[in-house]
Specification:
With 448 residues, this protein is of the alpha/beta class. A hairpin with a 7-residue loop joins strand 13 and strand 14. Helix 11 packs across helix 13. It is globular. Bound molecules: [cytidine-5'-phosphate] glycerylphosphoric acid ester. [cytidine-5'-phosphate] glycerylphosphoric acid ester binds next to strand 1, helix 1 and strand 4.
Length: 448
């Protein structure tokens, strides 16, 4: 019996895939098809896959061409599979010609002509494209514009800024450049909001009520009632309201949370997260540039994410110590927040006027997790134990600081109507509560 194997993502299965499977099958008597896992695809840069692994495996099964279906989940697995399954022939499309010649040491390698004129990317892009509007004045909106190029089915088509005349570079060339949110909303299907936290509620409400999906920098709102009102509007209008805390969309952070929750480091007793970035120009003059936030506004939700994802949100005590910029007294240059939970503690340090080590340490009764700076856009973390021989290291490719992953996830959520959330509502509520306390000065000690 001649055994053949072939590998692929097989997203949105099309006749190019089927022809490949048919010709691969004709090379022998038994065909094994290996379907890539979601994480393996993200790790190799394929962030736009629409269907889940289960859906893609089912599509391959329904062709009736595979005698066996397995998953491909790590680099180098092909050699393992060929040896373990006693494979005689490896087959793959000609777009990969030369890439798998190293397998000739283990089996025959056949490159089959790729079927022209069809691809999953093309299908994804032909689907109704989402027109995304940007809202805000901050410079990293340019990064969102460039990262959107990697996301199938998404076009950034406009921007609403407080000072559109001050916009620089490619943002100025967008189809709609306006100071009116109304005008922007008339021309888009979704918006990404990076305005100041105090503007979020009204902007989100206006969009949701017009059936526009919203991806918004955290906090969603500065008042719990406002948050609940927005959640209700989004639910009723069946549009997505998504919180844009970038670490939540990175594979490394998601896997870290799963491992910690699995108990691998024992009972979590302390979570310590630090986020700092000295930004030129902030605090040097009383004038606050449009859209600029203080340390808690910019870094607080990010630093709180691991706290609430790993310890839950029923903290009994919260105390914040904050120092403001000498000149821009409205903005905090540094804030430390300490949380007390029934059986754990947490501490976050955030600073735009103070520099510190931006790492994340999760302390447990059997070991601890260490994420090196800048932990909030990490592709790597370690689990460390009393016996260093038991230490484990994890790496998950993260391109573009997680922005393209976040945008691709947002498109999928908006298109599929799925209510899956990367940040659970309880975490969002807890962030709103803390930010509301901070803004209103509750549980806050001002120093200097
Ligand atoms: N294919 C084809 N014609 C097309 C599209 C795809 O022959 N129009 C082939 C590809 O060459 C590949 C298989 O169908 O052999 C699956 O394609 P994809 O799902 O795009 O997966 P890909 O990332 O190309 O998988 O490690 C090998 C890779 O996993 C191959």
């Amino acid at each position: 019996m001649t055994k053949v194997i072939t590998y692929g993502t097989f997203d949105l299965l099309h006749h190019g895939h089927v022809r490949l499977l048919e010709r691969a099958r004709s090379l022998g008597d038994y065909l094994v098809v290996a379907v890539t896992t979601d994480d393996f695809d993200v790790a190799r840069g394929k962030i736009n896959v629409q269907q889940s692994l289960a859906e893609r495996m089912e599509s391959v099964r329904e062709t009736g061409l595979a005698d066996e279906i397995i998953v491909e989940e790590y680099e180098g697995q092909k050699i393992d599979d060929i040896q373990r399954l006693c494979i005689d022939v490896f087959a793959v499309g000609s777009d990969w010609v030369g890439q798998f010649d190293y397998l000739k040491e283990y089996c025959d390698v056949v490159y089959l002509d790729r079927t022209e004129g069809i691809s999953s990317t093309q299908i994804r892009s032909e689907k109704k494209r989402m027109r995304l509007g940007l809202v805000g004045d901050v410079s990293f909106l340019t990064k969102y514009l460039s990262e959107s190029e990697y996301v199938n089915g998404l076009d950034v088509s406009g921007i609403c800024a407080r000072h559109p005349e001050r916009l620089q570079g490619p943002l100025r060339d967008l189809g709609v450049v306006t100071g009116s949110l109304d005008e922007l909303l008339a021309s888009v299907d979704a918006i990404y909001i990076a305005s100041t936290p105090s503007e979020h509620f009204e902007q989100i409400k206006q969009a949701l009520e017009r059936g526009i999906h919203v991806l918004c920098e955290s906090p969603i709102a500065l008042d719990l009632n406002d948050f609940e009102e927005l959640e209700a509007i989004a639910h009723k209008a069946d549009v997505r309201l998504v919180e844009a805390i970038r670490p939540a969309y990175s594979t490394a952070f998601k896997r870290l949370c799963l491992l910690v929750k699995s108990g691998v480091i024992g009972k979590v007793t302390s979570v310590d997260a630090t986020c700092t970035s000295l930004i030129e120009g902030i605090g040097s003059s009383p004038e606050i540039p449009a859209g600029v936030w203080g340390s808690m506004g910019e870094w607080g939700p990010i630093a709180m994410l691991p706290v609430f994802q790993m310890l839950g949100t029923d903290f009994s005590d919260l105390h914040m110590v904050s120092r403001r910029f000498e000149t821009s007294r409205k903005l905090d240059a540094f804030t430390k927040a300490d949380f007390v939970f029934p059986d754990a503690v947490a501490s976050i340090i955030v600073g735009k006027g103070v520099k510190s080590e931006g790492d994340l340490v999760v302390s447990g009764t059997r070991g601890y997790a260490y994420v090196p700076a800048p932990w909030w856009r990490t592709d790597y973390f370690e689990l460390r134990f009393e016996n260093p021989a038991n230490n484990r290291r994890y790496f998950y490719q993260l391109d573009g600081a997680g922005i393209r992953n976040q945008l691709a996830s947002f498109v999928r959520m908006a298109e599929s109507g799925t209510r899956t959330r990367y940040i659970d509502p309880e975490t969002s509520r807890a962030i709103v509560r803390v930010m509301s306390d901070f803004v209103d000065g509750r549980n806050v000690t001002q120093i200097a």
